[in-house]
Design brief:
The chain has 128 residues and is α+β, with helices and mostly antiparallel strands. Helices cover 16% and strands 35% of the residues. It has a single domain, classed as VC0802-like, CATH 3.30.2130.
C-alpha cells in the first residue's frame, strides 16, 4: 500500500499537448472545458484535443486523471505515489500540479494498464 492511497477521478475528455510560438497569447479555443493548462515555457499548452485546430503542432491522445479533493502543499509524496507505479509499468506520464491537486496524463493506449498498475498499489478510480 502506498503512503497515500488516493481516490482518482478520470476525466472524460482526451487531451493534446500543443506547441505555440514563444510570444503567443492564450488562443481562445484552448480555454474551453473543465481542464486546460497553460504553463508559460517557450511554447507548450495542454487542452482538450478536439479544440486544437489542424495545423497546430501537438501530441494528441492523452487521457487525464486527477486526485479527488484538495491537498495542502505540505503533503509530501503524492505525485511520487502515482508516478512510481506507472514508471515501474513502463508508462510515460505528463504531470500537471495545481494549487489544490495533481493531474496525471497518460497516452490513451496506456490508460487501462495505468489504471491496473495504480489500483494494484491501493489507488482507486472513478469517472467524472
Amino acid at each position: 500500500m502506498p503512503p497515500h492511497a488516493l481516490d482518482l477521478i478520470l476525466l472524460s475528455d482526451t487531451f493534446a499537448v500543443s506547441k505555440l510560438p514563444t510570444d503567443a497569447s492564450l488562443p481562445p479555443w484552448a480555454a474551453i472545458g473543465p481542464f486546460f493548462s497553460l504553463t508559460r515555457t517557450a511554447d507548450e499548452l495542454v487542452c482538450k484535443e478536439s479544440l486544437v485546430p489542424q495545423g497546430v503542432t501537438c501530441d494528441r491522445g492523452w487521457k487525464c486523471f486527477r486526485v479527488a479533493g484538495s491537498m495542502p502543499f505540505s503533503l509530501v509524496g503524492v505525485l511520487a505515489s502515482l508516478v512510481q507505479p506507472l514508471a515501474a509499468a513502463g508508462i510515460s506520464v505528463f504531470a500537471v500540479s495545481t494549487f489544490d491537486s495533481d493531474y496525471v496524463l497518460v497516452k490513451t493506449a496506456d490508460l487501462e494498464r495505468a489504471q491496473r498498475a495504480l489500483e494494484q498499489t491501493g489507488h482507486s478510480f472513478r469517472q467524472l
